[in-house]
Amino acid sequence: MTDRFTIRRPDDWHLHFRDGEIMRDVVPYTARQFARAIVMPNLTPPVTTMALAEAYRARIRAAVPNGVRFEPLMTCYLTDDTDPDDLVRGAAAGVFTAAKLYPAHATTNSAAGVTNVEKIHPVLERMEAEDIVLCIHGEVTDHSVDVFDREKVFIERHLRAIVAAFPKLRIVFEHITTADAVDFVLGAGPQVAATITPQHLHINRNAMLVGGIQPHNYCLPVAKREEHRLALRKAATSGNPKFFLGTDSAPHLRKAKEAACGCAGIFGAPFALESYVTVFDEEGALERFEGFAALHGPAFYRLPVNEETITLVRGETDVPEVLTVAGEEIVPWHAGQRLGWRLVG
Ligand code: DOR
Ligand code: ZN
Predict the structure, then answer these.
(1) Pocket test for ligand 1, best of 151, 219, 222 (most atoms within 8 A of CB)
(2) Which listed CATH number (3.20.20.140, 3.40.50.300, 3.40.630.30, 3.30.420.40) goes with 11-308?
(3) 217 DSSP 8-state letter
(4) How does pLDDT run across 118-155, given as a tens digit for each residue?
(5) Which of the ligands is closest to the CA of residue 266?
(6) What is the pTM of this model?
(7) Exactly one of 12, 25, 248, 281 is catalytic; which is it?
(8) Which atom belonging to ligand 1 lies closest to the Cα atom of 16?
């Protein structure tokens, strides 16, 4: 049995840092584990221009603890009015690593998102020509569609059409939650990949709804049936380079989660690697963990792999019931649980 192994330092290919005091307190959790992260732009107001992204990147860099090497990779929040020239300039200047498509009202701070994909066809055309990666929150917002079907319906109504219309556009289907998404990604060309969160590998929808409402297991897209979780575990641990790590760590204060209308998002950053490696261990796939966590993402984004390493050992990690950010309580993913792996640097 493998009790200890060393891999290249991983990256987080989908992450929310927020801004201000919360950002300053959550950045160190990610920087402890990851060398780089794709930072989501859904702030208020959203990060829609190169200038806003540069300023946000500077604030994040200032929050990285001394002596730690961590690089935020910025994304451009697409709206109906995105200026393709600014996006292309930002990408050429190394400010934007990707652009993010939020269907308007799909999730937290997405009100300024895209109301109709056709409106951004000129932007997607430029992105395809300039080889800029498109990250997609793949859920329809149509109220008549059941929340558990919104990802599957997005594939049929929108994603197939986007892939067909822009066959060279590199697309990351973010935080996939269904067997349908796994099948879609497997059936698409090498220009289509997906990120998978730790929570969607660990829980199905019962964890959110059985024994009372469990707000800390609520995120978007919501966890689905067990058969979907199993399909995600198979995909993540398969060694296929189309699937890679993206925590979707989305910090919301405890009071905003435990409320009559609780926010969507799971704060997975603090023990993300310990969480993922537990799944790979359970699936007998530890030898494929480095690919998922540290190799497939850079290959897809065409970035160098990290030279530093981390070591994971079998051992106890006790996840606190609660942490403090911005002087307030926040509940981390796996709160109060004991994980069977430890990150030793
Ligand atoms: O659960 C989620 N939280 N899903 C998202 O898509 C956004 C995120 C957030 O920003 O809180
Ligand atoms: Zn997200």
Answers:
(1) 219
(2) 3.20.20.140
(3) G
(4) 999 999 999 999 999 999 999 999 999 999 999 999 99
(5) 1
(6) 0.98
(7) 248
(8) 10
